[in-house]
Known about the structure:
Elements (H helix, E strand, L loop, with lengths): L16 H14 L22 H12 L2 H13 L3 H8 L10 H12 L4 H20 L11 H4 L24 E10 L3 H12 L4 E5 L13 H8 L14 E2 L8 H4 L9 H11 L7 H13 L10 H12 L4 E3 L29 H7 L3 E4 L1 E9 L2 E10 L5 E13 L2 H11 L16 E7 L14 E3 L12 E4 L5 H7 L5 H8 L5 E8 L6 E4 L5 E4 L7 H18 L3 E3 L8 E2 L4 H9 L11 E2 L29 E3 L14 H18 L3
Parallel strand pairs: 1-2, 1-8, 2-5, 3-17, 8-18
Antiparallel strand pairs: 4-10, 6-7, 7-8, 9-12, 9-15, 11-12, 13-14, 15-16
Amino acid sequence: METQQASITTSLQYFTEHDLAVLTLICDTLIPSLDTDTERYGLYKRKASDLNIPQLLAQAIESVAEPSAIQELRAFLSAIESPFINMLLVRKALKFSEMNAAQRIELLHSWETSRFNLRRKAFQAVKRLALMLFYSVTDPQTKRNPNWEAIGYSGPPPNPQKQKTTIRPLSITEDTVLYTDAVIVGSGAGGGVVAGELSAAGWDVIVLEKGDFYSEKDFNGDELTSTERMFENKGLLTTTDLGILILAGSTLGGGTTINWSASFRTPDYVLQEWEAVYKVSGYTDNTYQEALDAVSERIQVNTECVVNAQNSVLETGAKRLGYTVGTIPRNAVNCQDCGFCNFGCPYGAKQGTMRTYLQDTYDRGGRIIVRAYAERVLVERGRAVGIEGYVIDEQGQRHRLTVRSKVVVAACGALHTPALLMRSGLGNEHIGRNLHLHPTSVTFGIYEEPIRGWQGPIMSRIVHQFKNLDGKGYGVALETAPIHPGIGALSLSWQDGQQHKDIMSKIDHLSNIIIITRDTGSGQIKLSKRGYPLITYQLDDYDAPHLMRGILESIQIHYAAGAKIIGTPFAFPLNWSEGEHFDTYLQEVGRHRLRTNDLVLFSAHQMSSCRMGGSPARGAIDPCGQTYEVQGLYVADASALPTSTGVNPMLTIMAVAYMIAGHIRTAYTP
Length: 670
């Protein structure tokens, strides 16, 4: 099979031939060729190197990782070739390349389950990416992965080629200076709304988006291609310790283009905390509720939705336990129930900002520029007067771009907004701090009937039973997530190649429950030497028991729903099978420590890294969204939220941006 490499560099800058040889041995130990009577479509005989996975893995890492992270991985490759180190770890004075298959598995286990996070981190860096690529890389001719037949994955549905978006981004082909009333950096839930509201009031608006523009006809549903195109760091973004995988949009429309459509109103107890603790006024009265109403109407939030097999499992199991199950409101109209929402909606049913507020802006004459990188805010005499950066044209050429404006709105998300402000010289102590991630883990059940977690609406049901575990509004929510081969493979525990292929061969019968934690603990955004955001975050001791409670409750829901096998998020398999003592299993899971890189954690919601506060001591921006340090510089995205929300935050971000747009209109005249 000639594997897909279109968006990955073809030569290696850091990894040597020896590094690649060792990496190949590791990948072929993780994903070996096996002789088995249960062979299905060549899955068990196929090893990682048959699909060129080691080379693809090395190229992918070089394309997105910081040099220091690459050196850490190279140190791991060197260490497992050291007989001395291996003698200390597994009492075998052999190089990894000299070991037999069983010895190699034993050595990898010693790294996977080590008490030292650096070792666990090194193992997970290879394991996750190798498994993800093995099940998602496709042949450029057939557009299919050879393992899909074996695991029952149908692949994406054909694109109907129905173009609904008429936006045409402004082309920049030379060094350029532009003038406007407001320049908005970012086009997602925050930036899109501000652009739409200001343009509706007669403002001339320019929107800068560092991602590219893809519309309905471009959404092919391919997991790997879509992730590389439309997600931050080609979908490989993590915290610096690899402990949390970060899912964030990087395309026109931002997260609203690739999210799962959940549209929750902000809980009242969250708004009350904002006012009582952070002194953020204006959010506990009707004004904010009217903002929620306005954005809900524009993106057509509704509860009309069929229930797919995964959501049915969640609902059935929860109700059998006496739990209340809620319906998830979504911003989808005439949904075709294809199940590939997270790779862009080819039908135009999802009403993200590209289909709504950005289209409105464009129709009113607003200019939208993609592949535009904002390096810094221009500040003169304490006032923001524009943005300086560059644009990459369609031929890959870089052109300087300066936008002069009356108002600057930073809306590039909770990862990039603090980085932009720090690069621009702002120094408020809250810029980059207080980063909330809604740390999310997952459990799975294997069921007798097919589930096919890639079919039907991604999420339509939620269990809120455990949202207030501490009496202060902090706890967990239980939902479902889409299952596709790559993300499924990297999430599942690994014991050896046989065990992992056995589980993957049943993935069409697998249903998951995700546990979303409303976190009190927080992380931080720092700048790399190149000025890029680096994410540091540790699961807080206060939040960990809440996450564990969610794991245990989700396991009980799987059991009540009739699962035949139940699995946990831990690195080494901790599974239950039908016929085993369930209560004993629950107790064993409950005793497990939640260690970094010893369980899979995701974040699809990043918030609060430039939070609002009633004073500079409480936040980086005031309740109107303006920074305390620079006049005319506003923040209107998830980074503005004072706390995590405990629910999928898209609608909250949009309503907050709507409020801030109103404050801008009041304070300035176009």
